[in-house]
Amino acid sequence: MPSPPAWPSTSPRRLLVALLALLVAAGTGAGADAAPKPTAAVNSAQAATPDHPRYDVTLRADADGTHWKGRQRVSFRNASNQPLREVYLRLWGNGMDACGTPGSPSPVTVSRVRGGTAGPLSVDCTALRITLPAPLEQGRRTAVSFDVSLTVPERNDRFGSEGAFRFLGNALPVLAVHDATGWHLDPYVAPGESSYTLAGDFQVTLDHPSALKVPATGRTRTSPGTPGRTVTHSVAHRVRDFAWAAGPFRTAAQTTPGGVRVRSYWAPDTPAEGVRITRQDGAAAVDRFSTEYGRYPYGELDLVMTPQFGGGMEYPGLVLLGTEEEGSAVVHEVAHQWWYGIVGNDQYRAPWLDESFAQYANYRFYGLDTNDCWDPDEWPDRNAALTSSMDYWANHRGTYHLVYSAGPCALADLERTLGADTMARLLKRYARDHWYGISTTADFKKTAQSMTDKDLTSFWKTHRIR
């Protein structure tokens, strides 16, 4: 690993902490009516499907938020001109434990399926095939529903716990995607993300003890439940996933000058200075990136802070942050609201499209010196590429940091090649063209080339963007 770029003299320690946290982390949107709309045309025979999903979820927690049980309904449309005969649910919460053991079953279970016939779990119990009762033709909608049970694992992870606090990231089953390459049923990978989902709507009702605060994706409100309990209602439109946390958090809220409601939740033993810095930088970042890439469309953003969480993890409208005295990786994680959240990508096949772009935004936010930070000698072999899939990185874990280090350096070099103004226009156009959609490396290269008369072929080759 090369030395990181020079840090600004005002905050070297906390920026270094943020970068190092990212390298060990498990991973890794005021009104939607004004948001840009995607413009790219898609061949209907190859269209990603099932699309326009809607998830309606009702769950009830036990006394400390470890166990959640309830019912989930998923409705969806077939966007392809080929009949849809089946769908797959991805149970990403089973990724670390796979199929479990007789004494310790998988943490996510699905039962009593209606609207289709469930098959056996596959891909280490992260994929559930549901055969539809009749082929679903293009443009038609249907729904499946099922009971869901979630048991938060006893480990500090995106789906895990830290003391009295529970994290439920990648916990809800979501629809897999079928496109021109078939069903995307990739395995879970611990160093990064495997998820590839289409933007959809969530309406989630969480019934929990009143002692627990529950930050969640979307615009949330609470109402009284049965004695001693509270119901948190959340509505989220055009998001790719839904996450929440639960615990005796301290809380604060502010509205940024750009109109985004930022709610902060932190464990009492989180360093106070780290909480202050994270709240300050998180609010500034969401407004800045709204200006640079397109207005944040989700209205609310939740920052969830604990002292021991490993690095940071992003979800639409909510980020989990390990927070030290020096701060956290909040700017990188807020940047993910655009790069993966709004501008989607297949995170298994092209992780650089979200991680490198989010880290480039982080570099620019802090004004890091990226001159000469690209090192052509740091690559492990000539087959390695910045655009390699998680299949490659999972088998070369010691080099996965290149997505976070070489990636933003490559984008900084592209900025110097095109000029700062052109690069700014490129990113805003690229975001606009794929707003709520799915982008690929080829899409980005095509947009970049359209912005200049220079032939960028040698640039892509030099920077291993294939």
Structure report:
- By secondary structure, the chain is of the alpha+beta class.
- It folds into two domains: 12-30 and 252-462, Orthogonal Bundle (Neutral Protease, domain 2); 51-247, Sandwich (Immunoglobulin-like), CATH 2.60.40.1730.
- 23% of the residues lie in helices and 30% in strands.
- The chain is built from nine helices and 23 strands.
- The protein has helices at residues 12-24, 272-293, 330-335, 352-366, 390-394, 402-418, 420-433, 441-450, 457-462, and strands at 51-61, 67-77, 84-90, 108-114, 117-122, 127-136, 141-151, 159-162, 165-168, 174-175, 178-179, 182-183, 200-209, 219-224, 229-239, 244-246, 250-255, 261-266, 300-306, 312-315, 318-322, 344-345, 438-439.
- The strands form six sheets. The protein has a seven-stranded mixed beta sheet with strand order 4-7-2-1-13-15-14, with no helix packed on it. Strands 17-18-19-21-20 form a five-stranded mixed beta sheet.
- Helix 4 crosses helix 6 (402-418) and helix 7 packs across helix 8 (441-450).
- The longest helix has 22 residues, at 272-293.
- The two termini are 22 Å apart.
- The model is unreliable at 1-35 and 37-42 (pLDDT under 50).
